[in-house]
Amino acid sequence: MKNLANGRFFSTYGAVSRHRELKSHRLRLRPLEITDGERITEFMGERAVTKFLLYFTYPINPEQVRAWLQSVLSLQPEQCAYWAIVDQKEDLLIGIASLTLDGPNQKGEIGYWMDKAYWGKGLMTEAIWRVIHYSFDELKLHRLDLTHMVENIASQRVAEKLGFQLEGCWREGHYKDGTFRDVKIYGMLAVDYLRMKKRFGEMA
Ligand SMILES: CC(C)(COP(=O)(O)OP(=O)(O)OC[C@H]1O[C@@H](n2cnc3c(N)ncnc32)[C@H](O)[C@@H]1OP(=O)(O)O)[C@@H](O)C(=O)NCCC(=O)NCCS
Fold it and tell me: Over its length of 204 residues, how does the chain's per-residue pLDDT go in tens digits?
C-alpha cells in the first residue's frame, strides 16, 4: 500500500500525474497557466471579489498575482489542483477553482472565486459540482472540506446547494483585513456525494 509518504500519492486510490481538464454544461475547467495572470488581475480588481479571500487583499496588483501563480504552479499534483474556470461560450477565464489534497487522510479542500460580472447565474455551483464529481469518482477521495467566513452568504449558499453538511464553526478562525472572523466548516463524505449525485446527475 503506497501513500504520500513514499511519494506515490493516490496509488492506492487512482494514480494522478497531472490533474486533467474537466467540462460541465456551460464551463471548461482547465489547468491554470502562468499566462492567466493578466486576466485574473483584471477581475480581482473588484473589491468584492477579494473581500472574503484569505490570500488576497484589496487592492490587487499584477506582481501579487504573478507571485501567487508561480507558487501554486510549483506545487505537485499530489498537493493540489488549480483550475481556470472558462465560460465555454465566451472562451473567457471567469474564475478559479482549487482542490488542496491531504493524501494520508484521503481528503481534499475546495476553494473558489469568480469574476463579479458572472455571479448569481449558478456558475460556481456548476463548476464545483464538477470538481466534486472528479474528486470522488476519479480521485476516489473519502471526504471534502469547505470553509467560509460567516458573513460570506454567497459561499454559504454554494455549499448548501451542493449538499455539504455544516459541521461547526471555528471561532475567530481566519484573520482578514485586521479582524478575526468566525468560519463555518462543512464536509462532504463519499456517501453524501452518492446521495447528491442522484439529485444533480452528472451535470456534464
Ligand atoms: C462565492 C461565489 C464564488 C459564488 O459564485 P456564484 O457563481 O455567484 O454562485 P452561484 O450562482 O452558484 O450561487 C450563489 C448563491 O448565493 C446567493 N447569494 C449571493 N449573495 C447573496 C446574499 N447576499 N444573500 C443571500 N444569498 C446570496 C445567490 O442568490 C445564489 O443562491 P440561489 O441559487 O439559491 O439563488 C462568488 O460570490 C465569489 O466569487 N465571491 C467572492 C470570492 C469568495 O467569496 N469565494 C469563496 C471563499 S470561501
Answer: 344 443 445 544 455 678 999 999 999 999 999 999 999 999 999 999 999 999 999 999 999 999 999 999 999 999 999 999 999 999 999 999 999 999 999 999 999 999 999 999 999 999 999 999 999 999 999 999 999 999 999 999 999 999 999 999 999 999 999 999 999 999 999 999 999 998 876 554
Q: Which atom of ligand 1 is nearest to the CA of 146?
A: 48
Q: Are 84 and 29 spatial neighbours (Cβ–Cβ below 8 Å)? A: yes
First to last CA, the chain: 33
C-alpha span between 82 and 109 (Å, rounded): 12
List domains and CATH numbers for the chain: 21-200 (3.40.630.30)
- 191 C-alpha to ligand 1 centroid (Å): 25
pTM for this prediction: 0.93
Q: How far is the CA of 142 from the centre of ligand 1 (A)?
A: 26
Q: Is 156 in the pocket of ligand 1 (CB under 6 A)?
A: no
